[in-house]
């Protein structure tokens, strides 16, 4: 084949993997595997970011991709996607739950509605909104590619290194390990940027979830 | 004939399911479609009252389920619109008198007999709700611009999605445009953002609903009723027509609105 559907490039913050979406996903997986096979020693232990642009990823595809990467001892550190509607704005980046490599990953691609409860031992990624009245419970971290307007408990029962991150963080309540936080009573501005909640010595703090901070954290 | 079975539900009580079922049923019937409105609120039957057919009930849905009569015999034909029909609930029993299996069977029969079967669901998410939803081809979720009603609507949407129902649409009832303009009431985009299902219609708060439903009259039969017009628009959208959403500026009269729509 003349042109590979998988491209790797080095960036300031690590290895970036870009998938050509004209290529079908099964074909991409085959090509990815060839790539990894050819440079076994180079990729072994590597940490890569996946760039998807505006292309939505199916849960099934993501799972298969993770399996292939794992087989070659490549850690997926994050997914970079452009916000819908504008390719010019800075990309939004979600860190994949990495440090705890043994945690399982549960991906849900839908709106979680009032009265619904999603619980998983490992990390949970929701590609959609968590509506008020819905509950998401994770043994490790929770990442929401949408609005978090319901309740999220991360790090159940006692992992205080777990985080909760959302493109729009407006929860009814957050819990990480034994800590509980409610949003301030004052009305928040609707068009907020992605935010991340984590535990420090004061309890739960919420901060901007931008790539800058993400890499700072990774570096520290 | 393969008709469409549409269930009207909301989770919360008092948001206008029964009024909607009666009026949209009437509007569809007035457009020449053979329509039956089915009351599944066994024990708390209301649809017959709103439709003004209470005094003509002989058999009800529990009689059908328990084999005392056939479906045809329990169905009452409306006195004003002869394509409009009612299958009443029983008032003296409770929801357990009907099972989802028997409901599915009744829906299949009605689908063959009518162009449209409009099922009025009881409030709640228990047996009565399951009975109402099980045989439906389409689901209309009704809410009002209140946080609690929207929360319940969201819950119900989750349940019907879990039941793998494909066509789910939203109706916002009792909207007060001047309150929305003042920022005192939730706006349509806010509700659509949360519920993320396509809108089928918006019905303004309208006093004529109180007077008509108390008398067993239909708002769709009142030419001046804004809500009646909204119900008729919804019926046309159900039939696949593209009807623009009504302007709900209360400061302008219906005539002004019409002129503006026609660009006069």
Spell out the blueprint of helices and strands.
The complex is a heterodimer of chains A (about 220) and B (about 260).
Chain A: E1 6-11, E2 14-19, H1 25-38, H2 40-43, E3 47-53, H3 59-71, E4 75-81, E5 92-95, E6 105-108, E7 117-120, E8 123-126, E9 135-138, E10 142-148, E11 151-154, E12 164-169, E13 173-176, E14 179-181, E15 195-200, E16 203-208, H4 211-219
Parallel strand pairs in A: 2-3, 3-4, 6-8, 7-9, 8-10, 9-11, 10-12, 11-13
Antiparallel strand pairs in A: 1-2, 4-5, 12-15, 13-14, 15-16
Chain B: E1 4-9, H1 17-30, E2 35-39, H2 47-50, H3 61-65, H4 71-74, E3 76-77, E4 84-87, H5 100-113, E5 116-120, H6 127-134, E6 138-143, H7 147-162, E7 167-175, H8 177-181, H9 188-195, E8 199-204, H10 207-215, H11 226-238, H12 254-261
Parallel strand pairs in B: 1-5, 1-6, 2-4, 2-5, 6-7, 7-8
Antiparallel strand pairs in B: 3-4
Tell me what you see in this structure.
- The complex is a heterodimer of chains A (220) and B (264).
- Chain A is an alpha/beta fold.
- Chain A has helices spanning 25-38, 40-43, 59-71, 211-219, and strands spanning 6-11, 14-19, 47-53, 75-81, 92-95, 105-108, 117-120, 123-126, 135-138, 142-148, 151-154, 164-169, 173-176, 179-181, 195-200, 203-208.
- Chain A has two domains: 1-89, Transcription Regulator spoIIAA, CATH 3.30.750; 99-220, Pectate Lyase C-like.
- A six-stranded mixed sheet of chain A has the order 6-8-10-12-15-16, with no helix packed on it.
- In chain A, a hairpin with a 2-residue loop joins strand 13 and strand 14.
- In chain A, helix 1 (25-38) packs parallel to helix 3.
- By secondary structure, chain B is an alpha/beta fold.
- Chain B has a single domain (4-261), classed as Rossmann fold.
- Helices cover 41% and strands 16% of the residues of chain B.
- Chain B is built from twelve helices and eight strands.
- Chain B has helices at 17-30, 47-50, 61-65, 71-74, 100-113, 127-134, 147-162, 177-181, 188-195, 207-215, 226-238, 254-261, and strands at residues 4-9, 35-39, 76-77, 84-87, 116-120, 138-143, 167-175, 199-204.
- In chain B, strands 3-4-2-5-1-6-7-8 form an eight-stranded mixed sheet, sandwiched between helices.
- Chain B starts with a strand and ends with a helix.
- The model of chain B has no long low-confidence stretch (mean pLDDT 92).
- The chains are: A alpha/beta (220), B alpha/beta (264).
- The A-B interface holds A 111-116, 129, 131-133, 149 and B 151-152, 154-155, 157-159, 161, 194, 196.
């Amino acid at each position: 084949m003349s042109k590979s559907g998988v491209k790797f490039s080095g960036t300031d913050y690590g290895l970036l993997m870009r998938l050509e979406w004209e290529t079908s996903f099964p074909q991409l997986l085959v090509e990815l595997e060839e790539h990894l096979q050819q440079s076994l020693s180079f990729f072994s232990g590597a940490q890569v970011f996946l760039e998807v642009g505006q292309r939505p990823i199916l849960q099934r595809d993501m799972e298969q991709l993770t399996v292939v990467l794992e087989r070659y001892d490549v850690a997926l550190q994050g997914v970079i996607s452009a916000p819908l509607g504008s390719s010019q704005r800075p990309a939004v980046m979600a860190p994949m739950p990495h440090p705890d490599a043994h945690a399982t990953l549960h991906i849900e691609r839908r709106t979680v509605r009032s009265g619904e409860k999603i619980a998983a031992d490992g990390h949970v990624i929701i590609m959609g909104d968590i509506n008020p009245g819905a509950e998401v419970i994770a043994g490790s971290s929770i990442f929401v590619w949408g609005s978090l307007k319901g309740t999220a408990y991360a790090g159940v029962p006692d992992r205080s290194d777990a985080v909760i991150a959302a493109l729009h963080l407006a929860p009814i309540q957050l819990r990480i390990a034994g800590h509980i936080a409610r949003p301030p009573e004052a009305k928040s501005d609707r068009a907020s940027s992605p935010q991340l909640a984590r535990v420090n010595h004061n309890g739960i703090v919420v901060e901007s979830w931008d790539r800058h901070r993400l890499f700072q954290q990774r570096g520290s | 004939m393969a008709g469409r079975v549409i269930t009207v539900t909301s989770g919360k009580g008092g948001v206008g399911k029964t009024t909607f079922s009666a009026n949209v049923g009437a509007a569809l019937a007035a457009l020449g479609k053979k329509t039956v409105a089915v009351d599944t609120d066994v024990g708390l039957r209301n649809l017959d009252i709103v439709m003004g057919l209470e005094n003509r009930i002989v058999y009800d849905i529990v009689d059908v389920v328990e084999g005392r009569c056939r479906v045809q015999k329990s169905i009452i034909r409306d006195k004003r619109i002869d394509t409009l029909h009612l299958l009443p609930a029983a008032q003296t029993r409770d929801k357990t008198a009907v099972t989802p299996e028997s409901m599915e069977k009744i829906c299949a029969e009605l689908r063959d007999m009518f162009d449209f079967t409009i099922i009025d669901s009881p409030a709640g998410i228990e047996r009565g709700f399951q009975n109402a939803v099980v045989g439906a081809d389409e689901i209309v979720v009704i809410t009002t611009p209140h946080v609690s009603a929207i929360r319940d609507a969201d819950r119900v949407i989750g349940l019907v999605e879990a039941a793998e129902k494909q066509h789910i649409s939203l109706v916002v009832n009792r909207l007060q445009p001047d309150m929305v303009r003042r920022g005192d009431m939730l706006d349509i985009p806010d509700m659509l953002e949360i519920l993320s299902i396509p809108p089928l219609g918006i019905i303004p708060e309208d006093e004529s609903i109180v007077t008509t439903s108390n008398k067993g009259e239909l708002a769709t039969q009142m030419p001046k009723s804004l809500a009646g017009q909204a119900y008729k628009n919804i019926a046309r959208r159900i039939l696949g027509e593209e009807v623009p959403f009504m302007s709900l500026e209360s400061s302008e009269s219906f005539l002004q609105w019409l002129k503006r729509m026609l660009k006069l």
